[in-house]
Amino acid sequence: MTLNELRIIDKTKYFVQKWMTNEFSGHDFYHVMRVYETAIYLADGLNVDEFIVHMAALLHDVDDPKLRKPHAKIKHAVDFMNSIKLPQDQIDLIMDIIDNMSYSAHLRGQKVRTLEGKIVQDADRLDAIGAIGIARAFAYGGHKNRIMFKNDIDDDSSIAHFYQKLLKLPKLMNTPKAKVLAKAKMKTMKAYLKAFHQEFDQPHQLIEVIQEVSE
After folding, report:
1. What pLDDT shows up at residue 205?
2. What mean pLDDT, rounded, does the chain reach?
3. Structural domains of the chain ordered from first start
């Protein structure tokens, strides 16, 4: 990348960090930076425009419909890119990724059309699974005032979200590295769910285990 592109990336990090202040739904600046670092790892060795990957990863949640006010029309990411005088063709590439990478977009039949987009999409999906994905699922559930579990995987509880979306993500990975990482993370998810359901349904067994350990 050019020196100017590196400077733009630094400005973008600063903008996103300020924008994500007071974000407590699991889509905070730490999430953005994990997606950013993962996207860099996934892109390594591939013939892609690194600058587009970096920028799309950093800006991917700025205008997320789950986080902004309902029916908000302003594209803050676009406004920011215009403010730093990013060329229109680069803005279009970045926004095409952001507008098509979400799981809800997938359900609507939308697809990312570039390798850069597939990389950022994989990085975002990887942060939704594994140990960090479990934590984020409950953070988001708390943010939305969702009940933890109602003994039904078809309701709107946090645990139901695992079955409705999170467990399906590994099969949707695009890149070879992401598929390997997703497989490892899925073991953590499945082990957690097995333990959760056992404790939810048979709490007395947990008490027995605790007693055995303490003796």
Report:
1. 56
2. 90
3. 1-114 (1.10.472.50), 128-201 (1.20.58.1910)
